[in-house]
User: Fold NmrA/HSCARG family protein from Rhizobium indigoferae.
Amino acid sequence: MTILVTGATGNVGRQVVEHLVKRGADVRALVRDPSKAEFPADVSVVQGDFLDVDALRNAMSGVSTLFLLNAVVPDEFTQALVALNVARSAGIERIVYLSVIHADVYVNVPHFAGKFGVERMIEQMDFKATILRPAYFIQNDLTVKDVITGYGAYPMPIGPKGLAMIDVRDIAEIAALELLRREQAAEPLALERINLVGPQTLTGSNIAAIWSDVLARPIDYGGDNTEGFEQNLKQFMPAWMAYDMRLMGERFIADGMLPEAGDVERLTKLLGRPLRSYRAVASETVASA
Assistant:
């Protein structure tokens, strides 16, 4: 029985492949560019993307369980629906889908709304799926490391409500465990949603204080200026994506990204160890600099 991993050359997908291989799974990876597919030799690599229907049919032939991960792109929703329809035609019932926490709350944020639409489609098509809903990735903040260390400011518009940030490595391991649980079940398991959160809910000021401790010098919180955040992002990403990220920041400030009761305990039990903390990632980052 074969597990197909999509988004396999990305940060999460690559680690999912590695965890599955370590646990003895038969893994197939769908990639756009096989030259970037640095996987163990026993991983089967198929070239293609979500809009190449023939490639999807080839990739999904003989697959029993699917890991569905879509990048934040303008046609993300279309790509996911094409993949789900091809999966249905291929007889795949068992799915793990990487959505986002509060997809049903951040309704005006394009990539959140798209993922919530995919969740609804999974339900309507009666797939037997685990819908993983991760909070903000801790590793997102590595993109602003130079601003933190060079200018003494934490610039992300996190706000006062707090985000239950999670380490990407924990996301990937949980995804692999869920894929194996579904793959190995005697019968397809019922649909389930799991919030993926870190061990703490952190505000912008909390994060600035962590960096201050780790760097042993003052780091200020840059504030909740989402307009300035959008303008900065436009220097290195398309305007539509920068605006999408601004809208997300506004919802961070208004609503936060909060865990539900029992989320941390559930994930800790699933992993058999504590969740990785923001402070640990910040310390690793400084130590490796």
